[in-house]
Amino acid sequence: MKVNISILLLGLAVTAVGQPKQTPTASYQAARAPLRPNAYQELPLGAIKPQGWLREMLVRQKTGATGKLDQLYPLVMNERNGWLGGDGDQWERGPYWIDGLLPLAYILEDKELIAKAKPWVEWAIKSQQPDGYFGPSKDYGPERGVQRNNSRDWWPKMVMLKILKQYYSATSDKRVINLMTNYFRYQLKELPQKPLDHWTFWARYRGGDNLMVVYWLYNITGDKFLLDLGDLVHKQTFDYTDGFLNTDMLSRAGSIHCVNLAQGIKAPIIYYQHHPEQKYLDAVDKGFADIRKFNGMAHGLYGGDEALHGNNPTQGSELCSAVEMMFSLESMLEITGKVGFADHIEKIAFNALPAQVSDDFMNRQYFQQANQVMTTRLTRNFDVNHGGTDLCFGLLSGYPCCTSNMHQGWPKFTQNLWYVTPDKGMAALLYAPSEVKATVGNGTEVSFKEETNYPFEETVKFTLNTAKTVSFPFHLRVPQWCRKASVKINGKVWREVDGNQIVKIDREWKTGDVVELNLPMHIRKDIWFENSMSVERGPIVYGLKIGEESKLVKNDKDPIEYGASYVEVRPTTPWNYGLIQVPDNKLEENYKVEKKGPVSLYPWNPENAPVQIKTRAKRIPSWGLYNEMTGPIPYSITYNLETGPEEEITLIPYGCTSLRISQFPVVRK
Predict the structure, then answer these.
(1) Which of the listed residues 13, 180, 307, 410 has the most CB atoms within 10 Å of its CB?
(2) CB-based contact 358:393 (threshold 8 Å)
(3) Per-residue confidence (pLDDT) for residue 4, from 0 to 100
(4) Element (H, E) at 5
């Protein structure tokens, strides 16, 4: 089974005082000139409710580390945290946690979680000084396991600004607008003397997060100084546009930190809202193409452990990269409406993200490998090693930034399933079971119920509820991987459409209308490092099903740094298989898809994998372990490579695995 050994809670659970239910604001904030209108507009936090397996993911976060991190990680997340006014950790980790906890709380309408998040919001708002500064402001000496210096660094404030933006979306608390207005005036005054990289270099690479909130506030208040601040923040932010278009940065190992890249890749398109020049779109397109070419892996991310580190499938990919790249793609999807950004979100969300976190959301890996056959404590060929714990499943194994930051992935995915549109309609751009309320047309409130077992199955069904007949456009995304989709309205085929486009249904609607989107999923392959091959169907990558043996290890060596315990996983079945070469037009007959009955409420482990693929393969005796990893992957296709006899193997969704081969060598029949 996928790793699921909980770390014992440190301390007793505290029953929190509930907060009153918040009513999402009914108005949507359109762009204000001179900012360009975005393709889509985000709904208020709480308007989208997850159902089915997606709700189960969020409930597991509530009962797991997201809901209990103050008890599990008290060294950093207790009342000593600088973001609660204490003398403890005062940098990014506290805000990171709340950046996931707060949207989770309001999406689930969970009073206990809201009560846990609110003190952080309240302290941040009340910490504002007369000059506009807010947040921790006093440095302290070193303390093991705690970041107590650089209190005035610009970077952690960017995370808290994201939190306050979400809090305002859920509550319409005007204090957020006042705080941001005063703080951004402070930034405009201070940044010329103390630029983004004055304290640490992180803010220079992550300035797009700052700029995003500046433009969001401008759309609310119209204060012209915010546009000047936006230009200044962009000027002081690392020039990703030039880096992607005019340098070899993305082809060089070690050239940029993996999470800086995940966060920074949106910076050109954030700035594009005020300066809509084609070069900013071109830069991001080229950036993604080069990441794929030089560093890309089947799970949708790239080698970055921690600096950029190529595309060998044994290089690590950091969990922070997964959730930050998802957020960047979500931000760019809203601005551009580009189908490829939504496809990429789903590739990460349905593959890399569930594979890197335990079933009970209590343990996670710092790095994951596309080809991962042992998650043991050992120093490996990563750019950065943390006592060899980087592949182990634990609360603090590797480095604690991911312990703090992993919580935003699923809540923000939920928040970006649905949008409203400038043409007074609605859009479903990512697919998962959910319900949504929104205002369309000339102010009519409607709701949609989305029923689906996507990404494992092909049909997405939308049922409308409305008090009166209303005309509005309904936008649906057809993924690039889908050759031909069909759309039915009330049981009749409305249209068949090619992939890689947004379909718009503009009609008069009545309550009970049903739209069914069918997205046929075909077996396809992709080619990676050393001509290795991945097997894909729909948005899901399939990996070799490997027998797993988990062992809980008590850590007496360095528990403050890497946790009191962690889990190692070892294989119990062979892994060194090569796929047998077949023509592209024979993939369907050589890879047999088997559906295993109803999709479980929690599908992300080997036992519950809803779909599996059977195929033939051969073992490669010369391909063995090296440093408790797969050794150098045989080149496809090596002439005269010694192989064993044909065997049947089983592939399951990548997100269901802890151990897997997802990029296979290819051998001759």
Answers:
(1) 410
(2) yes
(3) 59
(4) none
Run means of pLDDT, 10 residues per run, the chain, 669 residues? 49 32 52 96 97 98 98 97 98 98 98 98 98 98 96 98 98 98 98 98 98 98 98 98 98 98 98 98 98 98 98 98 98 98 98 98 98 98 98 98 98 98 97 98 97 98 98 98 98 98 98 98 98 98 98 97 97 98 96 95 97 98 98 96 97 98 97
Structure tokens at 30: 């359109």
Q: Which two tokens stand for residue 313?
A: 């499938």
Q: Are 283 and 245 in contact (CB under 8 A)?
A: yes
Question: Could you give the CA distance from residue 307 to residue 254 in angstroms, rounded to a whole number?
Answer: 5
CA distance 219 to 28: 11
Q: So what's the pLDDT on residue 587?
A: 97
Three-state DSSP class for residue 530: helix
- H-type alpha helices, 87-146: 93-107, 111-126
* CA 555 – CA 563 distance, rounded (Å): 7
Alpha helices in 576-669 (DSSP H): 587-590
Helix then strand then coil, in percent of the chain rounded to 5, is: 35, 25, 40
Q: Is the dihedral of CA 43, 45, 49, 53 positive or negative?
A: positive
Length of the chain: 669
Q: CA 615 to CA 617: how far, in whole Å?
A: 7
Q: Which residues are within 8 A (CB) of 102 and not within 5 positions of it... i.e. 6 or more apart?
A: 117, 121, 163, 166, 167, 170
**Angle in degrees, 0-180, between the axes of helices 207-221 and 175-190, rounded to the nearest 10:** 120
Phi and psi, residue 152, nearest 5°: -95, 10
Euclidean distance between CA atoms 520 and 455, whole angstroms = 11
Three-class DSSP labels, 412-436: HHHHCCEEECCCCCEEECCCCCEEE
Question: Quick one: DSSP state of residue 348?
Answer: I
Rounded to whole angstroms, how far apart are CA atoms 371 and 383? 17
Distance (Å, whole) CA 521 – CA 612: 13
Asked if residue 507 lies in contact with residue 459, where contact means CB atoms within 8 angstroms, the answer is no
Count CA atoms closer than 13 A to 220's CA, side-chain side. 19
What pLDDT does 630 receive? 98
Residue with tokens 């020039």: 239
Give the residue ranges of DSSP H helices in 418-551.
none
Are the beta carbons of 65 and 407 closer than 8 angstroms? yes
Amino acid residing at 573 = T
Tokens of 382: 């990563």
Q: Structure tokens of 135?
A: 């947040």
* pLDDT for the residue numbered 2: 74
What are residue 478's DSSP bridge partners?
501
Q: What span, in angstroms and rounded, lies between the C-alpha atoms of 157 and 186? A: 13
Tell me what pLDDT residue 597 has. 86
